[in-house]
Specification:
By secondary structure, the chain is α/β, with parallel strands linked by helices. The chain is 29% helix and 18% strand. The chain has a six-stranded mixed sheet with strand order 12-17-16-15-13-14, with helices on both faces. The protein has a five-stranded parallel sheet with strand order 5-4-3-2-11. A five-stranded mixed sheet has the order 19-27-26-21-22. Helix 2 packs across helix 15 (349-365), helix 7 (142-158) packs antiparallel against helix 16 (378-384) and helix 13 crosses helix 14. The longest helix has 17 residues, at 142-158. The protein starts with a strand and ends in a 9-residue tail after the last strand.
Amino acid sequence: MSVPRLIIGVSLTVALAAALGSAPASPGPRRGAAAICPAAGCASGRLIDSLLARMTWEEKLGQLNLVSVSRDSVAPAQMDGVRRGAIGGFLNLTGAAVAAAIQRVAVTESRLHIPLLLGLDVIHGYRTIFPIPLAEAATWDAGLVEATARAAAKEAAAGGVNWTFAPMVDIARDPRWGRIAEGSGEDPYLGSVMAAARVHGFQGSDLRAPDALLATAKHFAAYGAAEAGRDYNTVDVSERALREVYLPPFRAAVRAGVGSLMTSFNEIAGVPSSANRWLLSDVLRGEWGFQGFVVSDWGAIDELRAHGVAATRADAGRLALTAGVDVDMSAGIYLAEGPGLVARREVGAAAVDDAVRRVLRAKLALGLFDDPYRGLSPERERAEILTPTARALARRDAGEAIVLLKNEGGVLPLAPAARSIAVIGPLAADSAEVLGPWHALGRAGDVVTALAGIRARVAPSTQVLYARGCGIADADTAGFAEAVAAARSADVAVLVLGEAAAMSGEAASRAFLDLPGVQQRLLEAVQATGTPVVLVLMSGRPLAVPWAAAHVRALVEAWFLGVETGHALADVLYGDVAPGGRLPVSVPRAVGQVPIHYDHRNTGRPASGEHYTSKYLDVETEPLFPFGFGLSYTSYRYGGVHVSAPSIAPGDSVVVSATVTNTGPRAGDEVVQLYVRDEVASVTRPVRALAGFRRVSLAPGESGTVEFTLGPEHLGLYDRAMRWVVEPGRFRVFVGGSSAADAEAAFEVRLSPPRSPD
């Protein structure tokens, strides 16, 4: 019988081309960028010049002063600061009524009537909480991620927010670091795709729209490389590592038009980020042409004293302002110390004016001078919160984020009409922890738990047994007997284990990556009953669970999925949704393997059977599950990989194509992944690097041919002089369903076209 063919072309956006290291294109707004006019001759430029000419020093420095408040109120002293023009914005203020009220004070009672920026950490939803960003990266679906950011922006904007401190685009290769939950994992290409998608989603096509938020790419830079995985810790990376690994997602965000960047807490090679002129001025503004503004992280400017590079608060303010930090979050240093710094000529007046100009341009781009209220009303706020459309999107997002890691003997999908099912574990009926860290205005009462989702899905005749078993992190085993009894009475046991929300996120580093508390003992007790076990992991990081991977029948990585946790989990467990999530991080076997990532360099002695090679004595070198991995309820076969030309010139492109066929009995989603390796170069290169991907839906027996275009942005490197070049030589490409893809082909980049025969 003939097999239908699905031709899928993957076009690589300009944002990704720039993100992966090609020479900077001309700066300027991209899709989602604000229509900012930096020139003095345009209308906005003339308005800014007029304001700057009339501002006192307090009013200028006030625009650079970001102050924290409680969620729904502003203190009298802060209200007075708004009237004096000493505050340029607030963070953590929410609610349409209070936001409108404080904007009214700013634009009617202050001398120059300048509106306020109102910022909030809208990381993975506002009231409708979507899966954590790491889970969203597991969807490998940029369009879906853009849609969830757009939905979050609509809700937050209706609640008075006009600026979000997201997306977090830090590359993280050490899962001990708690903030791995907030980013897109270990890979700069995937991270760049997700960074651009979230910027487009938050900012929309027009920042002046009342449902758009100014986005903030954070934390600039290399925050995810903190030593020992300990938050706020020192970072020591080379310029090569910065440019090849940690900066590309920020560059992608800039190319996508992001309005602001936030500095990181860490130092890089002895220079704290909030005092790093090379990073903020030379690279960000000079090389990349960034037109937005830079905000410090919370108190980071004052922390320059703790770093040991500033003796006083005034020293800290001088270092940050001259480096290029425009807005001081919460420390109040610019406002207090700025006049003295200018008077003593330690900071030039022009540097202050430039920072103020950038902040005012952002407020103009948001349309705040025309409409500071942006259509705020309690009615609109109520109408936008937790809508059926948003819930449906959250359910789809969570379903795509779930990664099936093991399915021995086809225990999944579950039979909805089974006689009985035991649902066990401290997270099975929990409606608070599954929201994950940084869940904004999310409420436990909005959550569909795993237990509720399963109960809603099973047949009326199916008995659902529930036992908590134990707490998340305590040592109490009193509930084991009930859990074991439930498992023995059931046809299958679904164990929902993992972390508490507070175990991930900021200041939530863990020295161990196994199941906390006595959960491992609970798992072993239930497994010993002989009832088939489906282990569902909920966490903000990949957990090292080698015992579970070896013993349980089915293993599901569910992360923290947000308000639609239960429905989405039931959708996948019962096969209503084909599992299509793929790992955005490598899953280690043991904490001793970290940091771990697929795109490592070979050493002079790569791991092998020989003794004197780079390996461990007590654990395998390879991860428990590789980057990009994920199973489905069907199977896929890859045909040969083809390249459009055996050789190309350095500035040319080559098309790589491969055919994938659904060889199983069910429809499913496959994430087709392209990896490239530069065989010999002037500097060492990764063993392979992701260069493209496409999520493909295929019916049973259906084939699709997926095409990728590889150009200089994927083949180039920073040479020994740190120049971006495409070097001649042989390249290998690999196409498949994970970073272990083995279908391959090769081509060459030649210095010049071959000569015609005489």
